[in-house]
Amino acid sequence: MPWPAVELRKIAETDDLRIAPFREDGTTYGTLAWIWSVVVDDALYVRAYNGQASHWYQAAVRQKAGRITAAGMTREVAFEQAEGSLDDRIDDAYRTKYRGSRYLDPMISTRARTTTIRIDLRA
């Protein structure tokens, strides 16, 4: 389900996204983890700083759903692995939003690129 433009803009402008994929039971939310997020082509993307070993990433890939909180909102969401063809544009969005951070290089590394997740609203 597409994001309302006003919500997506608010998320894009903030640095407070927290993600909680479902646990193995498919109904209990995991612990909220703070992560960086970017918006490209009216879609929301996140990456795992620690690569594929990241617990939240593994749960998101397995469960494909959960919850996020950002910009004062809590939303039920679906997770989908992003197409690799967008990696360069997502890298550019990270460079723009997080310019000057010492964590930027790891977030645009091959290790993190392999964990790019698109977050969509759940109906």
From TrEMBL:
Entry-linked InterPro entries: UCP028498
Name of the molecule in the record: DUF2255 family protein
